[in-house]
Design a protein that fits this description.
Layout: E1 6-10, H1 14-26, E2 30-34, H2 37-41, E3 50-55, H3 63-73, E4 79-83, H4 88-97, E5 101-104, H5 109-141, H6 145-155, H7 160-167, H8 171-184, H9 190-199
Helix pairs in contact: 3-4, 6-7, 6-8, 6-9, 7-8
Length: about 200
């Protein structure tokens, strides 16, 4: 069973962190706060699943620089950026860098909660795809070299006969490999096999 998502709040203003934390607690959401971008980055490898809420304008490292660093490090967390009126252009730049949403201060509590829950839902979808891709790649790693050859031929749309001709084996042998592939890849149909190969970036 997946753990409940955490909201990671990054802001150098103590009052804003406490205010957002109170709102999250009142809504039944778990949260952690960080007084700087660097404080969050120091935990990047152990961050609980959920989302990140960060101010744009902070000393030492801005919210935009944090976003870019998180993307560079491959952190999967969706990100919501909080911005003052003068920083809207910066927030748009952050959107282009990969954040999920931004809110201009002062914002309504309901708007922040809606943004956070939307980001978490989007993140769970992405995280699910990441987990599925990893699982598929693990199964592919268990295939023999010849099984991978047959899989590559099948996902390119070759028939058993065409795959056999290309690989220099009999169509019957291709059928046997194909049956083994279906079992090892846990695929009920050829279309499912192709979908898995697409997700694993085989084609």
């Amino acid at each position: 069973m997946a753990s409940e998502p955490f909201v990671h709040v990054v802001d150098d203003d103590d009052a804003i962190r406490d205010s957002i934390g109170f709102l999250l607690s009142s809504s039944g959401l778990q949260w952690r706060s960080y007084s700087s971008a660097r404080a969050l980055l120091n935990r990047v490898g152990e961050l609980e699943d959920g989302c990140i809420v960060t101010d744009v304008r902070m000393p030492e490292m801005t919210g935009l620089e944090l976003v870019r660093e998180l993307k560079h490090l491959g952190a999967p967390h969706p990100i919501v950026v909080l911005t003052g009126h003068a920083d809207v252009a910066l927030a748009v730049e952050a959107m282009k860098a990969g954040v999920d949403d931004f809110l201009e201060k002062p914002f309504q509590p309901e708007a922040l909660l809606a943004s956070i829950t939307g980001a978490i839902a989007a993140g769970e979808g992405r995280a699910g795809r990441v987990r599925e891709r990893a699982s598929i790649q693990e199964r592919i790693a268990q295939l023999t070299g010849r099984e991978r050859d047959v899989l590559a031929a099948l996902v390119r749309g070759l028939s058993n006969k065409e795959a056999a001709l290309e690989l220099g084996i009999s169509p019957r042998t291709v059928e046997i490999y194909r049956a083994n592939l279906m079992t090892k890849m846990n695929a009920a149909t050829l279309s499912e096999l192709v979908r898995q190969a697409l997700l694993a970036d085989m084609i």
